[in-house]
Amino acid sequence: MLPFLTFKPEPTDTLGMAIADAFEKVSTMSGSEMIDSLIRIILKWGLKVIAAMLIYIVGRWLIKRIQKILISIFKRREMEASFATFALSFVNITLTVVLFVIIVGILGVPTSTFAALLAAGGLAVGMALSGTLQNFAGGVMILLFKPFKVGDFINVNGLSGTVDAITITTTQIHTPDNKIIHLPNGPIANNNIENYSMAPYRRIEWLVSISYGDDADNAIKTMVSLLKEDQRVLSVPEEPYAVVSELGDSAVIISARAWVNTPDYWNVLWDMNKVFYNELPKKGIRFPFPQLDVHIDGTIAK
User: Fold this and answer.
1) Could you give all domains of the chain from N- to C-terminal order, each with its CATH number?
2) pLDDT per residue over 148-162, tens digit each?
């Protein structure tokens, strides 16, 4: 026989066992003896019950007080709402469990048995929810190290969007076409995260093809001048510039670069695409089409 099947719990002086003993003896007691026994039980356990109730009331007050203190600390330090909510929930659950263990200990319930049951239940739940626990751990890492925050535009695992909410297990983003995506925090914490909103400035690059034979210096001068005319283009951390970046098969590639404030990135990129398309031909700059030169040998084989 297995050892745990032969285990017998030791008698414990608990309220439940005292009541059971009283019911067992009630058939042999007289009326006065029953009253005396009942008074002894009330005197013995009444104080414990009253003490447990008082400890519960005081404990709940302390937990609420601690939560209020944490809320004031979070507000003073301007903590993110998602992190504050998680921290308050975690503290509340932890302190409530501790309070419950103290109360059942006062009532005579063996805390060691209760702790063993709690540990066994926690192990079973942990094995069943291993993926959820991984996402929970990922959420904790995101909230602690803050690779992004609500409102940032990020790219994770090929998905790009603006962060709407960070919860304990998932991060919600909406894509530029307004699709709502819930990403599990576990894979996010273990993968590369591109945050396009964290830095105040971003650099834009335009690759413009011009025909062979066109004046490259003229194209460079015109593109830089057009960039400087846009008030959204910054002179710091670097002035806008353009260079011949590549001699392609069908065109000369001019690379122009400029710094802008992060919120202006897409508007400046698209606006300058249109400006280059309209203005460069006015300066004699042509945009070539892909082409292939074919040379035919006039000799006819006999």
Assistant:
1) 15-128 (1.10.287), 147-195 (2.30.30.60), 201-283 (3.30.70.100)
2) 888 899 999 889 999
